[in-house]
Amino acid sequence: MAEDKAEPGLVFHPLDQFIVKPLFGDGPVSWYTPTNLTFWMALALLAIIAVFVFGSRGRAVIPSRLQSIAELIYGFIYKMVEDVTGKEGVKYFPYIMTLFLFVLFSNYLSQIPASYSPTSMIAVTAVMGFGVFIAVTILGFVKNGPAFLGLFWMSDAPAILRPVIAIIEVISYFVRPVSHSIRLAGNIMAGHAVIKVFAGFAALTLVSPVAILGIVAIFGLEMLVSGIQAYVFTILTCVYLNDALHPSH
Question: Phi and psi at residue 218, in whole multiples of 5°?
């Protein structure tokens, strides 16, 4: 909560927590400046490496807790890729696994008080969303050639409706990266902003107990949303990959 003492009452600035700031000092932010955003992205990367390096180091028959977590995540995503895209899509499992882990760890690390949420930044999620869009589009043309355009042509629909449906399908296809990235950033940003508002009301004596209960409830919901949004982002990536591998309706 940011409070301006020059004004009466409470003044909330719940979006201030999303400002990208230099990690050292208060100077301008350039492309090479270490920031709070890059710090928490690097921390997410280190956490992923720690879980999977230390989790798989022993390779015990009876796994440790860390090894069990690493194996569960690996098996869960591998099964998702195989179920959605088929055996042909398994070769792209490392890319999808990387996306899932980055989103998942970034989401959960952002629940730490005074942390920063990389996935609340549209600049971060847009790079991933448009990266998936460009990758699957190129893959679709490389694997299928002009037949990839069959993704937009509903051969089973009545002939008179096919051109209209094709236009709708093309528009829907190009909206994919926008919705893919905004969905993730919007959900994470909204949850953090609501917690900040409740935290501001916690300073008022009369509503403090209610505000604290609200913080606890929203925090619990955010823990659930963090995992769900990582899952949604990943399964949509699998769906788009399946369209590139099997474009015909």
Answer: -65, -35
Q: Could you say which DSSP state residue 9 is in?
A: S
**CA 224 to CA 231: how far, in whole Å?**
11
Return the structure tokens found at 58. Answer: 């022993």
Rounded CA-CA distance 162/7 in Å is: 61
Q: What is the pLDDT of residues 187-240, one digit of tens each?
A: 999 999 998 888 888 777 677 888 889 889 999 999 999 999 999 999 999 999
User: Using CA atoms, how far apart are residues 54 and 59, in angstroms rounded to an integer?
Assistant: 10
Looking at the chain, list the stretches that DSSP marks H as alpha helix, in order from N- to C-terminal side: 36-57, 65-85, 93-109, 122-144, 162-201, 208-245
Asked whether the beta carbons of 105 and 41 are under 8 A apart, the reply is no
Residue 91, SS3 per DSSP: helix
Distance CA 47, CA 58 (A): 18
The answer to whether the beta carbons of residues 107 and 229 sit under 8 Å apart is yes
41-98 pLDDT, tens digit per residue, is: 999 999 999 998 888 777 777 778 888 999 999 999 999 999 999 999 999 999 999 9
Decide: 146 and 87 in contact? Cβ < 8 Å. no
Q: Which amino acid is at 233?
A: F
Question: Pick from 89, 46, 41, 49: which is nearest to 240 by CA?
Answer: 89
Q: Which one, of 3, 32, 219, lies nearest residue 115 by Cα?
A: 219
